[in-house]
Design goal:
The protein has 8 helices and 18 strands. With 282 residues, the chain is α+β, with helices and mostly antiparallel strands. The chain has 2 domains: 68 residues, no CATH class; 203 residues, Alpha-Beta Complex (Fumarylacetoacetate hydrolase, domain 2), CATH 3.90.850. A hairpin with a 2-residue loop joins strand 1 and strand 2. This is 2-keto-4-pentenoate hydratase/2-oxohepta-3-ene-1,7-dioic acid hydratase in catechol pathway. One of its GO terms (molecular function) is metal ion binding. Belongs to the FAH family. InterPro entries: FAH (IPR051121), Fumarylacetoacetase-like_C (IPR011234), Fumarylacetoacetase_C_sf (IPR036663).
């Protein structure tokens, strides 16, 4: 069972997605929280999963009959990781850093599946970057790497955008280049770690691919990251607290320049398929 949000009458509703289809949590039990972040709490998650297992097939609908949106819109923090695959660093004529090259993004950058990525007027070279997103599940502060994944709720599919021409003006413009509206897409589903372990055993062999206009452009696996998910969680928890719903976007196998009218996709087999159109700002 996976966590998502769907649109109904213009309103986002937390939902569950599984083998039987998709169901709004409100259809399982009215009056439960209206924000999917509430169901990252273990007891709340276990309750709704139990309700779904007991529910009749008739409450579920096929995924193609619902409109998915971003799983949630107000995480406390979004951490991005730059140059986390050695091959991607080489693309940019950069050396892969010994420590994570991290940056923060505001929640105003969030859009969901099928919402447009908007190339800002200030940029003539905007890139899209498929990434594996790590979703924090409980308060996490100063944890060792070997325990870090115990604090992760699950994973998701991400498209992270960069105004690369702005960044090339000065490396100190990273925050500016990364924080235009629509520069962080995630979803459609959050996959709990229990399913990840059952399906893959670990995160190591998960493959991340950036696709533009139907063409696979760059692909790599988590095992080839310089700084793997457990290391990233531990490292950032030593800097500041991580809270449920915080997202760490773990870096891309390759950034692809996009233009008005393109279709960008993040494809992670077994995890998710995120697709967004691209348009230039008017």
């Amino acid at each position: 069972m996976r966590l998502a949000s769907i649109l109904r009458d213009g309103r986002a509703l937390p939902a569950l997605a599984g083998d039987r289809g998709v169901v709004a949590i409100d259809d399982l039990k009215p009056g439960l929280p209206a924000d999917a972040m509430a169901f990252l709490e273990p007891q709340a998650w276990q309750e709704v999963v139990a309700l779904a297992r007991q529910a009749p097939d008739g409450v579920f609908v096929p995924p193609g009959e619902v409109v998915f949106t971003a799983p949630y819109r107000r995480p406390r923090k979004i951490w991005g990781i730059g140059l986390n695959y050695r091959e991607h660093a080489a693309d940019l004529s950069e050396s892969a850093p010994d420590q994570p090259a991290s940056f923060m993004k505001g929640d105003h950058t969030i859009v969901g599946p099928d919402e447009p990525i908007v190339i800002p007027r200030q940029s003539t070279r905007t890139t899209v970057e498929a990434e594996l997103g790590i979703v924090i599940g409980r308060y996490c502060r100063d944890v060792p790497e070997e325990e870090a994944l115990d604090y992760v709720w699950g994973v998701t599919t991400v498209l992270d955008q960069t105004a690369e021409d702005i960044l090339q003006l000065n490396p100190r413009y990273l925050t500016r280049a990364k924080n235009f509206p629509t520069f962080f897409c995630f979803g459609p589903e959050l996959v709990p770690m229990s399913e990840v372990r059952e399906r893959f055993g670990s995160l190591e062999e998960i493959e991340v691919t950036t696709v533009v206009n139907g063409h696979r452009r760059r692909s790599n696996i988590v095992a080839h990251m310089m700084h793997r998910p457990a290391s990233l969680v531990g490292f950032h928890s030593q800097m500041m607290p991580l809270f449920p719903g915080d997202i760490i976007s773990t870096g891309t196998p390759g950034a692809i320049v996009v233009a008005d009218g393109d279709i960008a996709e993040a494809v992670i087999p077994g995890i998710g398929h995120l697709k967004n159109s691209v348009r230039a700002e008017i």
